[in-house]
Amino acid sequence: MNKDLRKVVILLAHPNMKESQANKALIEAVSDIEGVAVFNLYDQQDAAFDVDEWSKIISDASALIYQFPFHWMAAPSLLKRWQDEVFTFLSKTPAVAGKPLTIVTTTGSEYEAYRSGGRNRFTTDELLRPYQVSAIHSGMSWQTPIVVYGMGTADAGKNIAEGANQYKQRIEMLIGSSNAGNNW
């Protein structure tokens, strides 16, 4: 698992990346940026998470990103397992304090479905609130999520391209911020 412990750590949690279009395109857009380390949790799904190793990885990072498809209004279960087994410990240490946490997610439905009164009744900000609370509780800096809507619509390709561009810009901002003395 030891990658060159770089500045921005992305925890990718997608149970079927081989068949993914959106999350595959998003991670491909940012994984080659210098200063980014991607850890696909599903590559390690059958092994126990090594808290000591993850402590080193996260301690050496300047920012953390959770990337996942929105499944039933949450992340796939392996990210929750990582949070339970690793983040619970890290949240009580200086390893995460002050670091930005960003969520990057994709939805099958269009933006309008995630509005008050829309088909899903709630905004994505409301549905992502547990991640925001865990960031705040652990002393992290919550960042505005990047949500790529409409993977099940005719606009999926356009939305993925726009999301990939936004994702690259966010990574560059996080890396630039860390090079500027951690002034986020």
Automatic annotation (TrEMBL):
<dbReference type="GO" id="GO:0009055">
    <property type="term" value="F:electron transfer activity"/>
</dbReference>
<protein>
    <submittedName>
        <fullName>NAD(P)H-dependent oxidoreductase</fullName>
        <ecNumber>1.6.99.-</ecNumber>
    </submittedName>
</protein>
<dbReference type="InterPro" id="IPR003680">
    <property type="entry name" value="Flavodoxin_fold"/>
</dbReference>
<dbReference type="Pfam" id="PF02525">
    <property type="entry name" value="Flavodoxin_2"/>
</dbReference>
<dbReference type="GO" id="GO:0010181">
    <property type="term" value="F:FMN binding"/>
</dbReference>
<dbReference type="InterPro" id="IPR046980">
    <property type="entry name" value="KefG/KefF"/>
</dbReference>
<feature type="domain" description="Flavodoxin-like fold">
    <location>
        <begin position="7"/>
        <end position="170"/>
    </location>
</feature>
<dbReference type="GO" id="GO:0003955">
    <property type="term" value="F:NAD(P)H dehydrogenase (quinone) activity"/>
</dbReference>
<dbReference type="InterPro" id="IPR029039">
    <property type="entry name" value="Flavoprotein-like_sf"/>
</dbReference>
<keyword id="KW-0560">Oxidoreductase</keyword>
